[in-house]
Amino acid sequence: MKLQERLTVIGGQLRNTQMEKVLKKLSPGEAQVDFGNMTVVKDGAYKDIKALVMSFPQSNAGFSYPLPSENTECFLEGLKQLFHQAGGVPTYLRIDNLAVAVVSIGKGDKRTYTDSFIRFKCHYGFEVQPCNPSSGHEKGNVEKKVGYTRNNLFTTEPIMESFPQLATWMKEEMEKDRKRPHYEKDVLIEELWIEDKKYLKPLPLTDLPIFSVKSAKVNKYGEIEVDGEKFVIHKAKMKQTLFIKMEWDKFTCYTNDGKVVYQEARPYMNTTRRIPWNDIFMDWEKKPRSVRYSRFFKYLPERVQTYLTIRSEETKSRVKGIKKLLEKYSLNDIHAVLKTEERFERAPHELGFILEAKEAAYPEKLSEAHTPEILLNYETDLNAYDKRLCPSLEGGVS
């Protein structure tokens, strides 16, 4: 065979290989999934979360669900929620070699998966397309979707009240995003998704409960360790073995006979990072007119927002005063002391006096529901004791 003919054949084979890759990439009903790091603001502090993003290359439709970690329970719970958002199960799911799903990597497409992932895959009935090691481009659609989600939904950190609230917000935002044109085709993503969705497999009649079980022995201090943190189990005995049900957001401790002795949120649910308010207030002091328009303004408690902006001519002095109060008190403390409208007229140093007085006052009486109603505010009649101890005082005979 002549050189030119050989080159033609080789070129044809390369084109066919490339075409097969394109067709494979554009097969309807196939999806790719990956994690992305995002930041939100919860209770006045930064919180780092993981967004599990699923995209369909055929239509470029995307779905996203927020999670606190990348562990097995979070990954599988996130996949389950994404399937519900999509209204069906992808025929094929392309994933990276995530440690939460893949135990070991063999030649080609050979992978050894974790038992929990195999159980999940069999329950929902999808096939897996693993990526080759260090080959992120093989799931390039979802990687771009992760970046797109970060640059459009998390440019400024959204306020998070809870994971369900954040999940609802992200779902609505991703639905709005599907109303834009496809980046290559002159068609709305929403219209392409309608066709893509027809190839999805139906959801199973019942969802698979997502959890793992491990055991832990109570130490001599009455503690067990979960996710690297120690918890005191008051209802357990020393050296007692407990079984721990690990879900994505909480854990539950059981005895051998199935009795629940403890339940708590997993430690990462409450992990936050402090917002550098001192630096922010320093900038606001230099440019007081920028306070209302700052991206950090919405993270302030509502009453503190009002206090700083209710009198524009006093914004600078109030910013300076609040910055001084933050050396000793939190924004929530300042928010609480501004509970009456009259206090919005007070200068920051006057709020400081009120906070100091409140700090020095006796704590309020705790409310409790264990004392019987008849004993509440009961006063003892000491006359009966006087008659017994000193009968002469009552005219009796000693």
Ordered list of secondary-structure elements with their pairings:
Elements: H1 3-25, E1 30-42, E2 45-56, E3 61-67, H2 72-86, E4 92-95, E5 102-105, E6 111-113, H3 115-124, E7 127-130, H4 140-153, H5 163-177, H6 189-197, E8 212-217, E9 223-226, E10 229-232, E11 241-246, E12 250-254, E13 260-265, E14 273-274, H7 277-286, H8 302-309, H9 315-325, H10 331-337, H11 348-360, H12 383-389
Parallel strand pairs: 1-4, 4-7
Antiparallel strand pairs: 1-2, 2-3, 2-14, 5-6, 8-11, 9-10, 11-12, 12-13
Helix pairs in contact: 7-9
The level 1 CATH classification of the largest domain is Alpha Beta
Shape: flat
Low-confidence stretches: 14-25
Separation of termini? Answer: 138 Å
Major sheet size, sense and barrel closure: 6 strands, mixed
Report the mean per-residue pLDDT as an integer. Answer: 88
CATH topology of the largest domain: Nucleotidyltransferase, domain 5
Count of the separate structural domains: 3
| Number of helical stretches of at least 4 residues | 12
Strand content: 15-25%
CATH homologous group name of the largest domain: Ribonuclease H-like superfamily/Ribonuclease H
| Rg measurement, Å | 31 Å
**CATH hierarchy: architecture of the largest domain:** 2-Layer Sandwich
Helical content (DSSP H or I, runs of 4+):
25-40%
Question: How many β strands by DSSP?
Answer: 14
Quick structural gist:
The chain has 12 helices and 14 strands. With 398 residues, it is α+β, with helices and mostly antiparallel strands.
